[in-house]
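The freezer alarm interrupted the setup, so I double-checked each line after restarting. Inputs confirmed:
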Amino acid sequence: MPSQMPLQGLFGDYKTGTFYDEMFSGPDEPRPHYAKIFQKLSKMVPAQFEERRQHADFSFLLQGITFTVYSDGRGTERLFPFDLIPRIIPNAEWQRIDRGLSQRVVALNLFLQDVYGKQRIFADRQIPRALVYSCKHFMREVIGIEVPRGIHTHICGIDLIRDSKTGEFCVLEDNVRTPSGISYVLENRAVMMRTFPEAFQAYEVLPVNHYPAELARILRSLNPRGGDDAQIVLLTPGIYNSAYFEHSFLAQQMGIELVEGRDLIVDGGIVYMKTIHGLKRVDVIYRRVDDEFLDSLTFRPDSVLGVPGLMGAYRAGNVALANAVGNGVADDKAIYAYVPTFIRYYLGEDPILRSVDTYLCSRREDLAYVVEHLPELVVKAVGESGGYGMLMGPTADRDRIDEFKRRILADPRNYIAQHVLPLSRVPSFDPALGCIAGRHVDLRPYCLYDGEKVTIVPGGLTRVALQEGSLVVNSSQGGGSKDTWVLYGDE
Amino acid sequence: MLSRIAESLFWLSRYIERAEYTARILDVNFHTLLEQSKDRYRLRWEPLIVMAGEEERFRQTYGEADARAVFEFLAFRQDNPSSIVQCVAKARENARTIRDCISREMWEDLNGLYFTVNRFNPAEEMEAGPHRFCDAIRFGSHRFHGVTDATLPHDEGWEFLRIGWFIERAEMTARLVDVQYHNLYDAPSEISGPDNHQWMAVLKSVGAYEAYHRKYHAAIEAEKVAEMLIMHPLHPRSIRFSMTEVQSGLRAISGTSAGSYANEAERLTGKVLERLRYDRIDEIFKLGLHSYLTEMLEMCGSIGEDIARSYFYYAVVA
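Predicted 3D structure, all chains:
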């Protein structure tokens, strides 16, 4: 019986600590949906586990599933560390997440339609116009453009964390520009099935590999010329982009052409790609290039990643872009605080998933509180992502706190703050310790929106902060990932 | 097919072929010289650097062209763009930019070769001699072509791989014959003589030693070796065979039928092949082998340039 089995071997002297532990409800007491995997792991010795782990690592290396880090100035290729212990979500819990995310994606899309369209929300005084217009990624250039089928948020990655007391999933942030990571979800599952097949035998796990087909279906439906034979391309910044592996992976899985800006040309308001047999018209672009770099005639004149004239073709309705241009306004960290308002305003519903309480430094009373309580807070620059431009109050030294105080006071609109969230933990293997220890995780599900319904691949990317005590899960900052299982049933 | 992808495929196989050819020549040269006296060393290693076209760079780093220096320079130096490690790295880099267009097995195989090559410790290998390393490259290249042949649809992309592969091979063979011929005939008489061993090494380096004996049933002679490597219709390393492959690749892409041409690359390939078919080796020697091969290399260069003009580059539309 698991409840009487002492934690030993692979589990070492595992401690759940004061955190919400997803596997254990108490010492030696696995939650029902983790009981079977716990038993399997308990029977393994560290050497057996280590062998599997190396096998998995080798598999990733051989496939070149790496990302590039630029902090060392050379752009080194690194493996995205993969932890073999799956994270398991019971079906009932997932159903709630699925409903909550769908609701949120639809509301975000309506907000973007409105902000770049009729702007009813300002007239109805639900959000200050100044706040929206001052967002770093608000694009005046796309006001009035009618996007194909009214879809702005084709692909969203919404980051969730568990409330440390109740274990309830809450929304931490929205990513509605060019969210990345889905390739890891698919590859993690593939590698997991190869290296740890017996773990699946005890469970019924929902599959994830329909993502590329669903995305391809949505992209096809955007064809400005109508019909089923759209020429679709994936626009990548190129081989030096940290997500390049994902770009080529998705292009291959969807059977579409992977292009760089230099492969495309705009002539007479039509986008073409340069092939060995001449120019060929392009109808739909799944772009993984940020707005500012898309078109040097409209945005940054120094960009060589995009296609000069692309925005002209987009405005004329000759080419569809996914995601739409200007989406960054909806995942601005200050706008985040208003998403529950959007859900109520546009849908007339209560939000299913809670948001994290957020202080907007642009509000005078919030600002006063934030500068007084910096050592307890997490401060984020509103237009940044990937863990950059962030202050972790409790672990920061005096100088860093003072520096942030100066920055915040100089530009309050650019910052928000939240209380430090003790993310939930999932047992993970620590190669340094040679055994399993609790590590903090978040969850990024990927949502696809076709204008009528939202499709979410069960689970998503579980990112794990592999350093002991660390709360930062970003791959650029030492995070890894896990295979995430949503079960057919609840255990 | 995107022009950029066609270009990457073309270069991908060129780099692999260059790595393999370099490995072959290194290995065979080393083993031939094991049986010879030391005073011939300088003469015998120099040609390898000349072939690679890297004399100047070599002299900046090394003094004497001995086995160790040449091995290190051609196999491991990261600052030599034609070194084997650099060729493999560039092949992989090209593959990485088009990995959605090649089969997963091709990518994994090439990526594996890259890691294998980089796991070798140059100091240890220079102690052990080039065989182990060169073998790994040779097998790596063969395996890659095998995997490609078996997993990639034989469509336009495959044709670009084939063209890059064989145009590189034609050029390398032409340089090999040219350099060795120079080396053996222009050298002071007391060293040159009828040096069968060196020509034997040339044949072995391209894997044509047995085929030579089957064809000529005779002692090894410079003229016959040159004939075999330049004009043999069916040996896969002869210039003629390689150019026939290039021609059929070009025709498959443009859809041109035999006897006509769709672009300058096809016209020149046809012209080169006419000569390779109808010239005789004694005529070539009478005119001068060096000038014949130099012209051939220039034609190959022009063919490469025109392939780029026809398929890779775009004049920007105003």
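Quick read of the result. The mean pLDDT of chain B is 88.
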